[in-house]
Amino acid sequence: MEHKECMETAPVTMPRLNEPAPTFEAVTTHGKLRLEDFKGTWLVMFSHPADFTPVCTTEFMAFAAIHPTLREMGVELMGLSIDSVYSHIAWARNIEEKMGVKIEFPIIADLDRNVATKYGMVMPGESKTETSRCVFIIDDKQILRAMIYYPLTTGRNMDEIVRVIQAMQTSDKHGVATPANWRPGDQVIMPPPNTQDAAEARAKDSSLECKDWYFCKKNLKG
What number of helices (H) and strands (E) belong to the chain? Predict the structure, then answer.
């Protein structure tokens, strides 16, 4: 009988929401950086499949476009792929020369896949050699608050990344939730009451717009 070797694929390690983000120290285009260097600010860390590829180039230009907006929101930005720091530097220079867009945020050179492994960025079913299009949003206390994964063929939507952060920062500040398609200025959702007395009191609250005792919205002031 012909012998066939079984190739086992190592399981993908996945970080968990609302737990501390995996720590790291990495070589980047801005020198060595650690996750701890970003404590006190929010961080969007995103991975891309490879340098000098067309979809990734459009994404880097789009990330560069929202970089000032993110900084106004107290958010830093960092890219990553399993390419060398020299490749990252050459690609960033190429984007500035050919596209007229300067890449001012750091890019991790994750040649040993240390960060990619900790964050579950490599999906063996999609590619064993490239990081997927992942987005990790880490808050100012270094807690992982959101993860978004995209296939290799699909570029990311920058408006949605900004919107998610705006929604989470609004929830943190006001103790509310945000409905589907929420944008700043829209009504927010109040947490459902967890006692009968609270439900009855809510029904009498004229500042709320309630469809039922568990479903109430309100406008935020200021």
Answer: 5, 10
Burial of 96 (0-12, 13-18, 19+ CB in 10 A): middle
- The predicted-structure confidence for 14-27, as pLDDT tens digits, reads as follows 899 999 999 999 99
Residue 14 corresponds to which tokens in the numbers above?
Answer: 């996945």
Which residues belong to the active site? 56
Measured distance CA(199)–CA(193) in Å, rounded: 5
Query: How high is the mean pLDDT of the chain?
Result: 91
Residue 100, judged by CB atoms within 10 A of its CB (0-12, 13-18, 19+), counts as exposed
Tokens standing for residue 34: 């650690």
Note the pTM of the prediction, 2 decimals: 0.90
Strands (E), 8-64: 25-28, 31-34, 42-47
pLDDT at 7: 38
Task: Measure CA of the first residue to CA of the last residue in the chain; give whole Å.
Answer: 76
| Gap between the Cα atoms of 95 and 107, Å rounded | 14
Model confidence at 9: pLDDT above 60: no
Give me the DSSP letters along 116-171: HHHHT---TTT-SSS--EEEEEE-TTSBEEEEEEE-TT----HHHHHHHHHHHHHH
Taking residues 136-165, what's their average pLDDT?
Answer: 96
Give dist(CA 187, CA 189) in Å, integer.
Answer: 7
Residues 157, 62: Cα–Cα separation, whole Å: 9
Domains and CATH numbers, the chain: 25-155 (3.40.30.10), 175-222 (3.30.1020.10)
